[in-house]
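Hey, resending since the last one bounced:
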Amino acid sequence: MTPILTITLNPAVDVTSETDTVRPIRKVRTSNIRYDPGGGGINVARVITALGGEAEAYFLAGGETGSLLARLLQTEGVSSHLVPINGHTRISFMVLERSTGLEYRFVPEGPPVQPRELEPCLDAVASHKGQYVIASGSLPADAPSDIYARMVKLAAARGAKFVLDSSGAGLDTTLKQSRVFLVKPSRGELEQFAGRKLDEGGIRQAALDIVAGGAAELVAVTMGADGALLASTQGVLRVPAIHVRVRSAVGAGDSFLGAMVWALSEGKTPEDAFRLGVAAGAAAIMRPGFQLCRRDEVLALSAAALSNSKESQPR
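The structure tokens again:
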């Protein structure tokens, strides 16, 4: 099996720590610090690797923080390729306030990039032998809004399936200019794309409209505690959330996507792959900070959800 290619144009070093109380002005002493490689496509590659699949993560990075990001990925055993840029890779910082259980997240915009710095990623999409290409994460400053749409065309030219998880201009331009195999917006991202607030019926219709308009073959909408929805030409599959103890919502969407595409690459149907994605998202929120899902927990939750589903069916 050839690896699944992931593209991350705006990665980060994710730093997690804890404190008793977050206060203004005063120094806030933190403990239990943890460093993780981050960014949409990087996280997706980490999930695929953790589940037993093969992924290759291409990512833009620069400066000492870019070198740190590469070392963190190497430590986790993720196959990766650093594409150098002049700017310094951003650092995202999250603090857990123990007294309230609240998380405070600080996410910088990230460094601007030049068109020439994006070329190696385009070349990778065009030449890679993998069946799936996943572009996940926000666009960096100064990046052209059609960069993902250009990648879609390059992947299609060699028969690969393109998967998109982005927001704002990256999502809007790509769906208007090209056709992807799978797009995974959150509820908020879908509402931003549609230009209005959406209730349950509105989410279903907006997802079906994307399919009917030819922008995507599959639309997987993640809705947090409300579960997830999969739209295709066959209709809509609605799956409720798996109720687990929530420790952090960070990484649930990336875990969902990584598990779903990994399952598809293993020959699972879109419906079964989607259900595994829901289990992976639930497994991720059981983990603190920026930590992602673990294979054993994903499989256990998936089996339990399937068993519950069968028991709830009328006899």
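The chain has a mean pLDDT of 92.

Sorry for the duplicate.
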